[in-house]
Design brief:
Radius of gyration: 23 Å
Helix content: 55-70%
Distance between the termini: 45 Å
Strand order of the largest sheet: 1-2
Shape: globular
Order of helices and strands: EEHHHHHHHHHHHH
Number of domains: 2
Structural class: mainly alpha
Number of helices: 12
Length: 352
């Protein structure tokens, strides 16, 4: 895609990178990437003249009152992927655990968990490809195997979870050797599901974003607990007639309680430096974070009531599902707000 500087005195053809082919050459994996929209706004913001000379305060120095980091370019598909991936990962883990008990009464539950896990990995892959722009970019992440990269490991975990879940759904009900293979793959998919439910927390905690980096110990736990709560809530809404439904209901109660506790600890950990934890308390990200916590606490309260009706159970599941989804979006919004703060990074580093 070739663009032009529409408002410049001397319009020129460009590809968004401003590389002079006479002195430089674009090559490598990222050379074919192009901007999804016009870059005029970005260029205007970056080249805008300062109205006054920037003088850093001696008692509170910053980088000329400008953010030290760039804001992430992830779209809405990424926090939605956090939710769907966590739900499918927890589903595969629960299916593998239920399959350890070979009672026939659990067959319906195990089958439902495997179907949810397979469908979730397919949707998760679609969301990632949508955010990346085209399928080849997802496949490029599988060209290497790098244990030190949470993003690379995440791509492999998603692929492995989807592949093993597919084999399980296709072969598990077969007789003989094929059925044994399907059952074995069900246990393998459960192990990969544990990674899928938690690796996204590791991924964002492994960045330089102040609020994410400050809560790096609790974010994986929070995402894992939310994945468990999401699955329990989904069964509360849609799995009333599934044999053994008491198991995912109890699973969901534990997940709800763990998410409430992990959320409190995450906010406490991020607020060790008050400036760093500010996005979880103020602004749009703070509103989402507080709303998520309130809805999850309400869902937990409804789930713990001694007398449960179908209507109350559905409401508990709906509130918990919305809370888990909002939690992912609030964490993403808090990260962007933290990056825009020119002091958050400095305050966090000085405290360390």
């Amino acid at each position: 895609m070739i663009e032009r500087y529409r408002k410049s005195a001397d319009p020129v053809d460009r590809d968004g990178r401003d590389i002079d082919p006479e002195v430089g050459r674009l090559s490598g994996e990222g050379a074919s990437q192009v901007a999804a929209a016009s870059t005029d706004k970005h260029v205007k913001e970056m080249s805008a003249a300062w109205e006054h000379r920037a003088e850093p305060a001696s008692d509170d120095p910053t980088y000329y009152e400008r953010p030290m980091l760039h804001e992430s370019v992830w779209t809405w598909a990424v926090p939605l992927y956090y939710y769907v991936g966590g739900l499918s990962g927890a589903s595969m883990a629960l299916g593998a655990a239920a399959a350890l008990n070979r009672a026939q009464a659990f067959d319906d539950l195990v089958q439902r968990c495997h179907i949810i896990g397979l469908a979730g990995t397919v949707v998760s892959g679609g969301l990632l490809i949508y955010d990346l722009g085209r399928p080849s970019r997802f496949l490029n992440m599988l060209r290497v195997f790098r244990p030190t990269s949470p993003m690379n490991m995440g791509a492999w975990i998603l692929t492995a979870t989807g592949g093993t879940a597919f084999v399980t759904v296709v072969l598990r009900d077969q007789r003989g050797v094929l059925g044994s293979i399907g059952e074995a793959f069900g246990f393998i998919s459960g192990l990969f599901g544990l990674g899928l439910a938690t690796y996204t927390g590791v991924l964002i905690a492994n960045t330089a974003v102040p609020v994410w980096q400050a809560s790096r110990k609790s974010l994986p736990v929070l995402f894992g607990a939310s994945a468990v709560a999401s699955l329990g809530c989904a069964f509360d809404v849609f799995g009333e007639r599934v044999a053994g439904s008491r198991i995912p209901h109890a699973f969901g109660i534990v997940g709800r309680a763990a998410e409430v506790g992990a959320g409190i600890y995450t906010e406490h950990e991020a607020s060790a430096v008050s400036r760093v934890g500010r996005p979880l308390k103020q602004g749009w990200s703070g509103v989402l974070w507080r709303t998520s916590a309130l809805l999850m606490a309400t869902s937990l309260g409804l789930a713990l009531l001694p007398t449960r009706t179908r209507k109350r159970r559905v409401w508990s599941g709906v509130l918990g599902s919305v809370a888990s989804l909002l939690m992912r979006f609030s964490v993403e919004a808090a990260g962007k707000a933290s990056v825009r703060d020119p002091r958050a990074s400095f305050y966090g580093q000085r405290e360390q």
